[in-house]
User: What shape does this take?
Amino acid sequence: MNKLLLLEDTPNLAKTLIKYLKFNDYEVDWAKDGEEAVELSYQNKYLLYLFDINVPRLNGIDLLKSLRDAEDFTPAIIISALVDIESVTKGFMAGADDYLKKPFDPEELLLRIKVKTASLQESITFKEYELYLQSNEICYKGEPLFLGTVQKGIFMALLKNNPNPVTYDELLNLLDKPSENALRVNIAKLKKMLNLEIKSIRGIGYKII
Assistant: This one.
């Protein structure tokens, strides 16, 4: 998953960055104002955000703060012509991971993106599924996989422990109302949704095969 969200209201700069980043194997969604960026952030999962500050409808700093308040901790780089210390401070206080002052070399931006997302690329692969360890995102055939909180927790545990089983006690701790029956129901749902074999290991727990 190399998908970025770019918030930038200057078309020439946006098109230049999109072209350069696509050449370097990043897919880019472009928002021209803050409200459009909000909608895209809710509809998609991104590796990283690139936000300008002075954009229409909702500025980049307020947007980033609202995302952080909503527990969206996707790495974010502010790209802005505002170079005063007050603006830079506001950017970091809102939750930015980096601040790049305009004008900048696209190559420098690419380097900063790679540095900020390097740990996100650490992943566990099982068949056509991939779990990104830093973001806890699961993808199927390169596309985000959306599961309920309980099912996701169980599947993550199975992926992380593979090829070893996850014990019954560990799995029960992931349930809202722990019981052997509830665990069996959730395992059955997962098997059906994922089209994977999840085997019960008598006296121990479950494992994916």
About this structure: The CA atoms of residues 17 and 106 lie 7 Å apart. Residues 123-208 form a domain with the Arc Repressor Mutant, subunit A fold (CATH 1.10.10.10). The chain has two domains: 3-120, 123-208. The chain is about 40% helix and 20% strand.
